């Protein structure tokens, strides 16, 4: 399923700060920790806890968030379906990066082992 330009634009302008609490709630409901969530985000983006907090306070959009990120070279190993889209087939690079993050959070919430999540 291909994304539409409207969908891609909506994702680009969404703020990371508006989505992060949902990520945290999702993983904590399933017995995972904030520290594990931070580990997953740092693996994908290179952002440590301090930088992540700074980006949340600046209310950056996902576009700004991923422009500043140093995407992990193994990110392309993230595959599967999230939100009805097969992540490896998403053509818009930013939308794909956001869905990579969504997929990692989903895997964490589903109890997958950290070594598998970070493609070690």
Textual characterization of the structure:
The chain is mainly alpha-helical and 120 residues long. The chain has one domain: Helicase, Ruva Protein, domain 3 (Orthogonal Bundle). It has seven helices and two strands; from the N terminus they run H-H-H-H-H-E-E-H-H. It has helices at 5-13, 16-29, 34-45, 49-57, 62-68, 93-109, 114-117; strands spanning 81-82, 85-86. The protein has a two-stranded antiparallel ribbon. A hairpin with a 2-residue loop joins strand 1 and strand 2 (85-86). It starts with a helix and ends with a helix. This is DUF2200 domain-containing protein. It comes from Catalinimonas alkaloidigena.
- Sequence of secondary-structure elements: HHHHHEEHH
Number of domain units: 1
Number of helices: 7
The helix-and-strand class reads mainly alpha
Choose one word for the global shape. globular
CATH class: Mainly Alpha
Q: What level of helicity do the residues show?
A: 55-70%
Strand order of the largest sheet: 1-2
Strand count? 2
Q: Kindly report the CATH topology.
A: Helicase, Ruva Protein, domain 3
* CA-based gyration radius: 13 Å
Q: Determine the N-to-C terminus distance.
A: 29 Å
Binned strand content? under 5%
CATH 4th-level superfamily: uncharacterized protein sp1917 domain
Mean pLDDT: 96
CATH architectural arrangement:
Orthogonal Bundle
């Amino acid at each position: 399923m291909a994304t539409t330009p409207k969908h891609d634009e909506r994702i680009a302008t969404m703020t990371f700060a508006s989505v992060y609490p949902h990520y945290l709630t999702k993983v904590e409901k399933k017995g995972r920790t904030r520290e594990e969530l931070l580990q997953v985000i740092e693996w994908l983006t290179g952002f440590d806890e301090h930088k992540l907090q700074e980006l949340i306070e600046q209310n950056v959009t996902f576009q700004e968030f991923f422009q500043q990120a140093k995407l992990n070279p193994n990110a392309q190993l993230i595959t599967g379906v999230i939100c009805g889209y097969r992540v490896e087939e998403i053509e818009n690079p930013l939308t794909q990066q956001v869905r990579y993050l969504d997929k990692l959070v989903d895997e964490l919430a589903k109890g997958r082992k950290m070594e598998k999540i970070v493609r070690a």
